[in-house]
Amino acid sequence: LSFGYASLTSDIATFRRTMRVRNYGSANITYRATSAFRYAADASSGAVRVSLQRDGVVTVPANSSRTFVVTLTVDPVKLPPW
Q1: Is the pLDDT of residue 63 over 80?
Q2: Burial of 62 (0-12, 13-18, 19+ CB in 10 A)
Q3: Most buried in the list 10, 26, 42, 77, measured by CB within 10 Å?
């Protein structure tokens, strides 16, 4: 999932994307989306927080789709210098 590039200075920024999950099967499926940082130092800085609507749990009926929102909050003051 890409949130694109944003040139941030000192104000906290929030970005939202809507994810659509499609179930092509013939039975209901419950999906659980999770987020993870590639590097532990990125998570420990507290500069970026990811939250998933309904904790990322979505039940999709057979041959249907459902959506949930992913929110990314960035505190640029906590980011390391480039």
Answers
A1: yes
A2: exposed
A3: 42
